[in-house]
Amino acid sequence: MTTLKIPFDAQISSELASKLSNFSAVKEFSQDETNRLIVSLENETNELISQILNEISEYKYGFTYLSRSFPVEKMTCGGCASSAERLLTNQPGVINAKVEFPTQSAQIVYMEEQTSPEKLKAALDMLGYDLIVK
């Protein structure tokens, strides 16, 4: 299961709730105490995440996001990738992060007005991994 954490400072409208419910992969959604929209997905693909974020952007003016892939160096095992993924997912402005040990890469969906590749690199540096920002 994948969780998207989307900064969303408005109430979830019935129209948005209906649109999110139409995605078969969306298992549940709610709004947390910090006004993030939390969307739990059963099966996640980059295309599905983009579709959901595009639906949400119709309701939140100025909501923009980027999806980028970065090489990650200095990981030695799958546990390293899990730790890196958990850290990235919990960074402010990160909607979703997927880190893979076999490919030594991270696919990160983030809001560019709230974070940057350089900030994400600095966060991973604390764990001893190197996010390559080009």
Describe the SSE topology.
Elements: E1 2-7, H1 14-21, E2 26-31, E3 36-41, H2 46-57, E4 66-73, H3 78-89, E5 94-100, E6 105-110, H4 117-125, E7 130-131
The CATH topology name of the largest domain reads Alpha-Beta Plaits
Give a short account of the largest sheet: 4 strands, antiparallel
- Proportion in helices: 25-40%
Uncertain residue segments = none
What class do helices, strands and sheet pairing give? alpha+beta
Q: Report the strand count.
A: 7
Helix and strand run = EHEEHEHEEHE
How many discrete structural domains? 2
Global shape:
globular
Assigned CATH architecture of the largest domain: 2-Layer Sandwich
Write out key terms for the chains shown.
134 residues, globular, 7 strands, four-stranded antiparallel β-sheet, Alpha-Beta Plaits, three-stranded antiparallel β-sheet, 2 domains, alpha+beta, 4 helices
